[in-house]
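> run fold Tryptophan--tRNA ligase, mitochondrial
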Amino acid sequence: MALPVRTSMKRLLGSIQTCTAAKGLCSAGNGTENKVKCGGRVFSGIQPTGVPHLGNYLGALESWVGLQEGYSSVLYSIVDLHAITMPQEPGQLRDNILNMAATLLACGINPAHSILFQQSQVSEHAELSWILGCLTSMPRLRHLPQWKMKSKDKKEGSVGLFTYPVLQAADILLYRSTHVPVGEDQVQHLELAQDVARIFNKQHGELFPIPQALLSASPRVKSLRDPTSKMSKSDPQSLATVGLSDSPDDIVLKFRKAVTDFTSEVTFDPERRPGVSNLVAIHAAVCGWTVEEAVRSAQGLETAQYKLLVADAVIHKVAPIRVEIARLRGGQRVSGERSDPRRPAGPRSRSTAAG
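> ok
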């Protein structure tokens, strides 16, 4: 599968201008809905670390799809320059880029409504990062979450890791983006982009809009093995994370092994019952319910039975994505999809997710 990229800044900006001119800054949709798109430009990026997991989808990608209908100019980038701040094997990185592109398309990112491109194909990202880095102090970067977390884990860090947030700022400002979908853990990085935009504008004249945050309303999906930590692809426990390319049997196995507690009733209490509450939050998110509706759906079920109900709801949600990823990759097995000898031989629960 070929990744749709613009190989020069001129071509990319030309595409953006064509898209904006065609749609207008605020355009009404056709048909009975008469849906109005907001003006401004949305930008967001995602690292190519293979096929995303359920937490990535519910926390970001699902909202990305919706933003295509809400804004008249939307750009999404596979940010491979960010990925190389940590050691990468070149062949695996290339494969991860293709897997990420396939996943984004499978999730609903539509090239007719947004621009999807590979960051490293546009050299101006790195060029603007250098300019903005000359406007950013080292003490400011030392206190940002990315450096504090990653350098603490490694007890040291590269220059690239240290200036990672400056490259993020360049990603956003390069396209004069006005809105950026972020999670709470990325707000400080967006604030840096806002600050360097103000500094640049003050010194060189008004050029960059001050980008605003679009905070996700989705709850953070927690690890199935440690519900006090967020779900992560880097988790050493294979049963902790549900990948979008996992088979139905793998998903059932992971939810059956999910850590809960010794109380059989299903309730939502994140402080005292984080494991069960994580299941409820996932169930609510994949079904489009409130947590109260998810809890009501579990009345009369013990926790073990509820795990299978949630597993089926997740399978129902991700099955079309998994099938489309495989189609786009030409039927290849993708990263994150593996055969697990521990999967149960028997059939899945017959319970299904209510629509």
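Confidence is low (pLDDT under 50) at residues 1-9, 15-34, 335-355.
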